[in-house]
Amino acid sequence: MPAASPIPETRAEKLARLKPLVLKGAALRSRRRRTENLRLAVQLASLAVVLWIGYRFVAWVGRLEAGDLDSARPPGVEGFLPISSLISLRHWFESGEFSRVHPAGLVILLLAIGTGVLLKKAFCSWICPVGIVSESLASVGRRLFRRRVKLPRGLDYPLRSLKYLLLAFFAYSIFVVMTPGEIVTFLHSPYNKVADVKMMLFFAHLTSFALKVLAVLVVLSVVVPYFWCRFLCPYGALLGLLSLASPLKITRTASQCIDCALCAKACPAGIGVDRAQRVRSDECTGCLSCVAACPVPTALQMETPTRWRRVVRPTVFAGLVVALFYGGIQVAKIAGYWKTEITNEEFARRVGEIDDPKYHHGRGEIEPYGPED
Q1: Cα→Cα distances 196→58, 96, 133, 192, 241, Å
Q2: Contact between residue 108 and residue 132 where contact means Cβ atoms under 8 Å apart
Q3: Mind listing the pLDDT tens digit for each residue in 277-301?
């Protein structure tokens, strides 16, 4: 006769069995704070780096305008040129040439892609300055409304598709519509060479329309947590798709789970962590908030694939994120793929004539460049 099926364990029985392992009160809060403070430390350090780069860049442009050609331009500012970096990526794929116009931008894009493939969307929740600001605005919203505002699924899903539509538009425009000649033209165009300066000038002299758009985004990000990141960021959409291949995923051990659903409540992306065996969602940013909220330390953890089943502790995961991203930048510097080929003399000349029509673009059109440019 076939063996009788084991009687399913009731929740009360599971709670009794796991009671010695369940963290409560101060112990649970302490565990949660350790993980939150670890990520906060990395976030604040990353934000400090970005602010320092911004300060140095503004000072560098000011010195150029004053005729000082000896100051150094911070290459990290190119991280805010994602379109140029994506075009450089296609050029690299197609020609094998690593563009030296904005090489740091391409390095940063490649490292962000690397974190997506290996470490979920950790770039978004540990490194990205926009993500840090978005998280801060969401925190303001929780304090104001005393709860996390969650859109109905019928509205959330269509809105989440917007970032993928934007990603598809940029990918189609760059990888399908543009010809190899147009790619080279753009990379060496006067406009692209000073795109970072034009970006600075844009934010330094915001139009009333731009201010209104930013104000609307700020308000929406307070009311609806992570509005930009969740619905509009094409960078996040790209990393989300790549993160599906990540070998590291949040893994729930059902036999250790007490079904408290605290993990799902803590998840900023609203993922049903409490119902998953391994969290495969493209919205998971590897923030580890769910892991920190779990009262049974062995029930929910970041783990390698099932056949290896190795736990990656928060400190190790944080170390991997920092080592991959910032270590990769150091490797790029040593290998000579960080600083632009554009000299300060050329930058000074271009900044001095930046109001010339050749530094403008209309509907994506860029004037052809020549030796005189």
Answers
A1: 10, 24, 21, 8, 28
A2: no
A3: 999 999 999 999 999 999 999 999 9
